[in-house]
Description:
Layout: H1 12-21, E1 25-33, E2 40-41, E3 51-63, E4 66-72, H2 82-99, E5 101-107, H3 117-122, E6 126-128, E7 136-137, E8 139-141, H4 146-151, H5 155-166, E9 170-174, H6 180-193, H7 203-214, E10 219-226, E11 229-239, E12 242-250, H8 259-273, E13 278-280, H9 293-299, E14 306-307, E15 311-314, H10 318-333
Parallel strand pairs: 4-5, 12-13
Antiparallel strand pairs: 1-2, 1-3, 3-4, 5-15, 6-15, 7-14, 8-13, 9-10, 10-11, 11-12
Helix pairs in contact: 1-7, 5-8
Amino acid sequence: MKKPFPHILQTPAWGRAKQAAAPMWTPHFFTLARGASDMVRTDTFTDPPPFTAAVLVLERSLGFGQRLHYIPRGPWLDWDSPEAVVSVLSFLKQFARERGALFVRMEPDVYTDEFPYSAVAAAGFRQTPDYIQAKDTVKIDIAKSDDDLLASFHKKHRYNIRLAEKRGLTVRHSTKVRDTAAFYALLGKTEHRHGGALRIHPLSYYEKVLSTLAAEKMARLYLVENEGRIASASMVFTWGDEAIYMFGASDYEFRRDMPNHLREWTSMRDAREEGRHWFDLWGISMRNDPGGGIRRYKLGYSEEFKVMAGTFDWSPRPVSHALFKLANRLRRGAGE
């Protein structure tokens, strides 16, 4: 199965945003044209995609001349085609060799029941528990009327949306970088509530991501206000047929006003009016959710969640790769 669009994390725009926000990452974007046999480097992207496969490789130095190649939510290809799987994964391995990468890590945008595990294993990629992106998600079908969309939510969520409206909360969206500071202030409060488990980026990271993607109409902030104060905020990515709730935060002081419910409700309707079909809540089983509150909140919009295929590594030097992973585990165990 091949989705109609590559994931936003597999676009040249995300590569530029990631490099601007975190300069240690270098993006390499390749596509395979219809009827062609070789993937070629490009930095352009059109809608709909005029190619049969695409991959964004994010490259980062590990020190001592070693590199990591990371492929978030990709590559994009027809996973039902053994030929396509072999061709694209062979290219990734060859490119890694050329660049001297210690290993390639990919996290395909494919669900467990649709993924060709045997073909990927035959290509030398091994599944690893060291995931980076969310392991599962809820994608809400928003291509329906307000009444039908509301009816698909848990009754408590419907009540909370109406409560937020009744209490006078308002929602605005923004692509202005200066509004990122208010969003970041809430991230800091949310991080504190979770005991540091969120591991948020610096303010400049979110500013660069927003400014880069907003310039291509692929990201915006949602800010929920209560009498002029910011009660809740999120950053939503928009691309192809979906919108993605990527980052969110709230002020605990306003928890009884249910600002998050109104925020998501507004985001979904905006995405629908743009012609999007899906709203991705981006992660149900979260490392930073020991009490399960985030999980319960997101499942209130839809109880049907999907588990992603997983995370897969390939290395031209397996022994060195194994030592690298062991060192990483030891560092994490030491609290680094």
